[in-house]
Design a protein that fits this description.
The chain is an alpha+beta fold. Helix 5 runs antiparallel to helix 6. The chain is elongated. The termini are close together.
């Protein structure tokens, strides 16, 4: 069964660190894990809640759970017809994660004006926000291919989280920016072929 979950930047990075296979444990003040049943509902939360939060980012994730395990949780309707979700107790999340089939995918992203992103602590992207990182990568790509490859791979968490932002908000329609996005994707595919970069179809 297919589910969707809108997440912020911090939660996305935790999912990424699991190889895009697991959702992180709930915090003490979060007794329930809420996957939703349709993408429009997830997009609504991502746009209206996550993107307007202090993080300024909402990512919609899609994932598949074994039907038999998903059926052990009752579907809850919490508003209009599309507002359907599961209520998975925090103590059941580990087992729920073990029934996820394949990888968790990022299918959509929304960004608010306050978005800073993950600020790296190493190499040429150190101390830069998401927009400044793209500008730095543009400069590096222009003069040193080896340094460019090293920067993308060394700061892969930031690159993964920011690529949708660069595509949607920062990159212009100029050939140079499109070429830069393609170059980032090429390095990524060589270094991390098992983890697709950018937005993926929900299929």
């Amino acid at each position: 069964m297919r589910f969707y979950r809108p997440v912020g930047l911090a939660e996305l990075l935790l999912i990424y660190r699991s190889g895009m296979r697991r959702f992180p444990p709930r915090l003490p003040e979060q007794p329930i894990f809420y996957p939703v049943l349709n993408e429009p509902y997830a997009r609504q939360i991502s746009r209206d809640w996550n993107a307007t939060s202090p993080e300024g980012a909402g990512y919609v994730t899609a994932f598949d759970v074994e039907d038999a395990h998903a059926a052990s949780f009752e579907v809850q309707q919490v508003g209009a017809r599309m507002h359907q979700e599961l209520w998975v107790p925090a103590e059941a999340l580990d087992a729920f994660n073990s029934h996820i089939q394949g990888r968790i995918r990022v299918t959509a992203a929304d960004f608010g004006p306050c978005f800073v992103g993950q600020v790296p602590t190493a190499f040429s992207l150190r101390g830069k926000d998401a927009r400044a990182q793209f500008e730095a990568l543009r400069d590096i790509h222009g003069y040193n291919g080896m340094d460019f490859h090293g920067e993308v791979t060394a700061n892969h968490e930031a690159v993964f989280a920011h690529f949708p932002y660069w595509e949607q908000v920062v990159a212009s329609d100029t050939p140079g920016d499109r070429e830069l996005l393609a170059a980032i994707r090429k390095v990524w595919m060589e270094a991390f072929p098992e983890l697709p970069l950018g937005l993926q179809p929900g299929y």
